[in-house]
Amino acid sequence: MSGIVPAPIARQPWQMLFPLFVLIAFGALVLYSAAAGSWSPYASSHVLRFGIFLVMAFVLARFTRELAMFFAFPIYAALLVMLVGVEAIGFVGGGSQRWLDLGFIQLQPSEMMKPAIVLVLARFYATLPVGMIPTWRSLIPAGGLIMAPVALVLLQPDLGTSLAILFGGAVVMFAAGLPLRWFIGAGLAGAVLAPVAFFFGLQPYQQKRVFTFLDPESDPLGDGYHITQSKIAIGSGGFSGKGFNEGSQSHLHYLPEPHTDFIFATMAEEWGFVGGLVVIGAFAIIFAWGLSVARASNDRFGKLIALGMTATIFFYVAINLMMVMGLAPVVGIPLPFMSHGGSSMLTNMICIGSLMMVDRWNRRAPRSGLMR
User: Fold this and answer.
1) H/E element, 93
2) Secondary structure (3-state) at 255
3) Residue 97 φ then ψ, to 5°
4) Where in the cell is it found (predicted)?
5) C-alpha separations of 114 from 50, 54, 86, 109, 361 in Å
6) In this structure, is residue 275 part of a structural domain?
7) Which of 83, 203, 238, 245 could in theory staple to 33 by disulfide, Cβ–Cβ 3.0 to 4.6 A?
């Protein structure tokens, strides 16, 4: 096989790239349909962005371990400054202040903070002596690194992104070996404080989303409209769907945001249960590959990066699918590699590039079986 396929092509992680290409192509077809049978404006820009960010991922995969460790804290600090800048001069869109208008691009720093928090925490725990892991010295600094961006993102307000940052950070902390009792204690404390956070920490529209999630049929034409129409679209698809470009919910504008947050519902109406299996199966293969990269890593830094980046993509997928099926409140999280949106694509391709980077380290590292 090595004589037929050039070595640089053969050594790429095709077990991940193939399902990734399937998701991108499938997403382009759904976006084509969401635009009423037109490649513009969604499908064409979706494919173009993927092409650009795929090149970025391949470049990122060439980073050495030393270079990644060197840039971890500067990248985190730069994004933290950008988040402060969002509060001062940020661009307001959709009722939220989340973007920096740089002229040539509207940048959402909170999106890039998701992989950045994984990288900086992996850097922190990679250099921390093992004996300090079960102590407060491993918890307090890491907690500060997580809560600083979470607090700034909550001010925008953006509950979904803040939860994603928190989730990615918690996964890295757990994988680093912090005592399980700390996580159990944090979970119990969160359960006790949840009512207080709900009534005094959430915005009124966020509280409405929770009430809508609990009983969407109470206001099907108001706050429950999104979830109700999404369920109708998914249910009407049946086993094999209505057919490509034949979805009535999206074409007749009953389904809100059919090209972003609710793209899975758009897909399910036209491709049915079969299409859903293809999408979920492709994501499952990518997750399995990410976990295999983590298992194969023989150093703590690479292992934590791989687990954290895989968890970040998983959070996107899990919350989006639960949201469109009415199993979670609507929080505005797109479906990776299928939804239209530059910031989301950039974040997830950074995660893919980081996983490819660790995979490359694994293939070049001596197989000692020990974590350095």
Assistant:
1) strand 91-93
2) coil
3) -105, 95
4) Cell inner membrane; Membrane
5) 19, 18, 16, 9, 22
6) yes
7) 245
Residue 347 lies in a domain: yes
Q: Which of 267, 157, 265, 253 is nearest to 205 (CA)?
A: 157
Domain count, the chain: 1
Instruction: Please tell me the distance from the alpha carbon of residue 336 to that of residue 315, in angstroms, as a whole number.
Output: 10
Element (H, E) at 104: none
- Give the pTM: 0.88
Nearest residue to 301 (alpha-carbon basis) of 239, 350, 362: 362
Pure H helices in the chain? 7-10, 14-34, 42-60, 65-89, 109-126, 140-154, 159-176, 180-201, 204-214, 225-236, 248-251, 263-296, 300-324, 342-364
What pLDDT sits at residue 372? 38
How far is Cα 153 from Cα 9, in angstroms, rounded to an integer? 40
Dist. CA 49–CA 43, nearest whole Å = 10
pLDDT tens, residue by residue, 173-208: 999 989 888 889 888 888 888 787 777 666 776 677
Q: What is the CA radius of gyration of the chain?
A: 21
Tokens of 203: 């915005």
Q: Is the residue at 236 inside a domain?
A: yes
Task: Please state the rounded mean pLDDT for residues 233-248.
Answer: 85
Q: What's the CA angle centered on 142, arms 136 and 145, to 5 degrees?
A: 145
Domain extent at residue 23: 14-362
Distances (CA, A) of 198 to 158, 190, 191: 14, 11, 11
- pLDDT tens per residue, range 325-351: 888 887 778 999 999 888 889 999 999
Residue of 15 and 208 predicted with greater confidence: 15
pLDDT surpassing 60 at residue 118: yes
Q: Does a structural domain hold residue 321? A: yes
Helix (H, G, I), strand (E, B) or coil at 221: coil
**Do residues 296 and 302 lie in contact, with contact meaning Cβ atoms separated by under 8 Å?**
no
Q: Look at the block and give the residue holding tokens 């249960």.
A: 273
